[in-house]
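Researcher: Please predict.
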Amino acid sequence: MTREAIFERISELIKVQMHREDLEITPETSLQDDLGADSIELMEFVISVEDEFGIEITDQAIDHMKNMGDMLDYVVQRVN
């Protein structure tokens, strides 16, 4: 799966999670600052990503993710 395809799928998951199909997601997008996701929404999103890609995202890894680019890097490393 290409990096671009993974990013597109993650972006779609966020849009569905946030009930906002109009969101413009970039690698610099911060889930908490730009999207206003609370801790429950963030955890639901992480679970969706784990289920979609068949990976586990540790709490430590989540703590180090500042933006969508960090999430993308993590997923790409585990999927490919």
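Model: The two ends are 7 Å apart (CA to CA).
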